[in-house]
Every structure is written in C-alpha cells, then in structure tokens.
Write a structure and sequence with these properties.
With 460 residues, this protein is an all-beta fold. 0% of the residues lie in helices and 36% in strands. It contains no helices and 30 strands. Strand 27 and strand 28 form a beta hairpin.
Length: 460
C-alpha cells in the first residue's frame, strides 16, 4: 500500500492532493456558491458517466462525462474521478491507463482494453467542496469484429413532418467500433389512415431515406445497420405528421446487468419519459423476450400501466422489455431496455480497497517573544476516505461501511464509497494514528481492507 505525505500550513483554503482531498474545516463554513442561475444556491455536483457501450478488442474506449453537472462558480476546481470498479480477471488495466484522470481534462478520457470481457467504470465529480455520488458505465469488449450500433436520428428519436411534404430520416449517427462501412435497412410502419409501406421509402438502403406522408398521424421507422459480418440491434424513431400535438417520448431506463444479486421482483423505471407539450402521460409496458427456458409473460408485471412496475423473473438470463407512453392523443415510439439476471451460485466475492495510507503534518502558528513562544492549536482537518477502487467481478452493486474504532475521527457518511472524515482541533505536538477499516459487500459475500491516517501537529 502506497503512502502519501502531506505537509502544509493550514490557511483555511483547499489543499490539493493526488489520491485524496484535504480541506481546512473553516473552508466549508458558511460557504455557498451561485449556480448557473444566480438566483439559486449552488448544489453538489452530479456525475453522469455516459451510456454503456460495446467495443472491439484493442480499440480505444472514449468515456464521456459531458452530461455531468456542477456549479459554474467552481469551474476552476472541478475534477473528474474515474475508477475501474471491475475488469476481466486477466486484464492489467488500472486507473493509470486512463488519460488525464482526476483533472478537468478527464471529462473525456480514454483507455485501451487488453482482454475481452466487461469493464465496469465509476465516475465521481468534485468541485473542491463536495463530491458527487458515483455513476457507472459498462464497457463490453468483444473479440474480433464487434457489432455496429444503429442511430435513426431525430430529436430524442422523434421527427416532425407535414402531409404531402418530403420527410428525410437521418441514420448517419450509426457507427461501427472498427470503423467498417455500414449498410442500412429501414422499415416504415404508417398510421391506419395511410396506404404507405416500407416500399415507399426513397433511397431505403442509404443513411438518409425519405418518404412523403399521405395522412396525418404517427409513422414509426425502424433502422438496423450491418458492418458486413453483424447486424446491429434495431432502433426505433417516430415521425409526427400534420398534428399540432407533439408526440411523447418513451424512456424505458438504462440497460442493467445485476450479476447474481438481482432482487426478485426487480423494478423497471420509465420516469425518464416525457411529453414536450407537458401533457399527462399514461404508460404501457410489455415483455419482448425472455431466456429460452423462462415461462414469464406480461402477467409477471405488477402493473403494466405504472411508470415503475415490478417484474418477477423465474430464471437467470436476459429479459427485454418495451415501454410506450400516451399523451391522450398519440402513442410514442416504443423504447426497449434489457435487464440481465446472473446466477447467484457463481457469485464472486467483492474486493475492498480502502485507498492509500496517509501521513499528515499540520503546522500550528506560533508567536515568539523574548522569553517564550505561544502556539495556536492546529486547526481541524478533513480527509477524504476513498473506497471507490473497490470492485466486484460480477458487477454487483456494492454496499460500503467505514469504521474508525477510537471515535476521534468523525466519518461523515460511513455508508458511502467516498466520504469526508474530520480530525478535530489538536494541540501542538499531538501525534495520532487512525486505522480505518472499509467493509464492502454484495448480496452474499463481503471483504475488508484497512488504511492508516497518521496525523502530527507541529509548530512553525
């Protein structure tokens, strides 16, 4: 375990560190910033690690934190903290493999995977005063030729059109991890009033086909792309023609891999769905596919009309669900989400990582006279306990628990992966050592790791 040594005169400001953040307590007292809207109080940052992805072996992986949020008052202090929660067993990839990590430049770092498998990566954002909760992205690395990804364009997957006027679709955002040329396959499903079909798409085999709608209503288009070896999963867009009402957009939530620790029932989340007109939405969930030996049906939903229904599964494997929403006038295009349930019998014990040990040398301010010296106490310090490098091979969600048995050090949130811990005011020549234990657990197994924080208060 490496050791970081800190030596600084406390000045009430931020003291930057490499593997932790160290603050004078007075730096946080009554400190309020101004958000982008100056009428609001600055809020803690929010991490957004981006969408899950599939890439080919040895292809560079480009991460993206650009949708993260923080107060603009602290732009100069913002850093992005990426960490590998789990990597394939034979991989030698570490945080050092990430370009520009723990800097403002790490908004879009990259790394090159060295073996196939799933790489689970966490992101936290710090503005110098507080640190966000972690958000996660899964990078699936496949051997040889990875399948392409289709993108049918539109604004949120939605187009607007007028009856009798040409509507052009745009699939140019589709991509292939290896950069292979793509071929395009579009289908068109018109409303009941229309006589059109997929055969009425002009330039159907290109990235930008078009059609002329013959009545008002919602036209649903589906795009799949091929790199010559693999077809992508289909994506669905909609075209709202000749209606003042804008069609709603369904969001079935993020693809999730629960490892062996999935709850049963598990819960879906359609709260990301929206209507641009602000109309009240109704929801309709459906089961699209299930593992081969599963007997589940739509009857396994607790309520198919709920925005976040529970679903009771019966065997391990991948389940695909569809969500559509209705604004009182029109149905959205369907949105799909996959949930993968792992086998608890194959659950692997998580690995705790409590971070590097730290030596802190605080300096008290002393005033000398002809006969003596008077020294102020060393001001309180806060160190950041960082267990974010803990990992779980199965990708299971981890529970964290920090413990410092003396009680002298105060841990702000013992159940957080990354949490401040405060050392109170100390007199000159105080010499303290804190052994802090981190326990991480999944639904079945746990692991411990310790880190040591040595604190000394010296005179100047």
């Amino acid at each position: 375990m490496h050791k970081v040594v800190i030596s600084s005169l406390f000045s009430g400001g931020l003291i930057p560190l490499t593997s932790l953040f160290l603050f004078g307590m007075s730096a946080c007292t009554d400190t309020k910033g101004t958000a982008t809207d100056s009428s609001e109080t600055c809020k803690a940052p929010i991490a957004e690690a981006g969408e899950d992805m599939v890439v080919g072996l040895s292809q560079p992986v480009f991460l993206n934190a650009s949708n993260s949020q923080w107060c603009s008052d602290y732009d100069d202090n913002v850093v992005f903290i990426w960490a590998f929660v789990s990597v394939p067993p034979q991989s030698a990839v570490t945080e050092d493999s990430l370009s520009a990590n723990r800097t403002i430049a790490a908004m879009s770092p990259q790394f090159t995977p060295d073996v196939t498998g799933d790489y689970v990566i966490s992101l936290q954002v710090s503005d110098g005063l507080s640190v966000s909760d972690a958000d996660f992205v899964v990078v699936e690395v496949v051997a040889g030729d990875a399948p392409p990804v289709a993108d049918c364009g539109g604004e949120g997957g939605s187009y607007q059109g007028d009856m009798g006027q040409l509507v052009t679709l745009d699939g140019s955002g589709s991509s292939d991890p290896e950069g292979d040329d793509l071929t395009y396959a579009w289908t068109l499903t018109p409303p009941n009033c229309s006589d059109l079909s997929s055969e009425d798409l002009y330039n159907e085999g290109t990235s930008t086909p078009s059609f002329v709608p013959d009545c008002s209503g919602v036209y649903v288009t589906t795009l799949t792309v091929s790199d010559g070896n693999h077809w992508s999963d289909p994506v669905i867009c909609s075209v709202d023609v000749g209606s003042e009402n804008r069609i709603p957009v369904a969001d079935a939530g993020k693809t999730m891999d629960f490892g062996g620790c999935a709850g049963n029932p598990t819960q879906l989340n359609g709260y990301g769905s929206y209507d641009a007109d602000g109309d009240r939405l109704t929801y309709s969930w459906a089961l699209v596919s299930a593992p081969t030996d599963s007997a589940v049906t739509d009857g396994n939903f607790s309520d198919v009309s709920s925005p976040n229904p529970e679903f009771t599964w019966d065997v391990v494997g991948r389940y695909t669900f569809q969500l559509q929403v209705h604004d009182g006038q029109a149905w959205s295009a369907p949105d799909l989400v996959d949930l993968t349930i792992g086998d608890i019998a194959n659950n692997v014990r998580p690995i705790a990582n409590a971070g590097d040990s730290v030596d802190i040398e605080a300096t008290a301010n002393c005033q000398s006279t002809s006969y003596s010296a008077e020294c102020a106490d060393c001001a309180p310090f806060t160190v950041m306990l960082d267990g974010s490098a803990s990992s779980d091979f199965d990708g299971d969600m981890l529970n964290f628990s920090w413990d410092e048995p003396t009680g002298v050090m105060s841990i702000a949130n013992p159940q957080a992966a990354l949490t401040p811990a405060s050392i109170p005011t100390q007199v000159v020549n105080a010499n303290l050592s804190f052994e802090v234990t981190l326990t991480v657990s999944d639904c079945q197994q746990s692991d411990d790791d310790k880190t040591t924080i040595n604190y000394t208060c010296v005179s100047n």
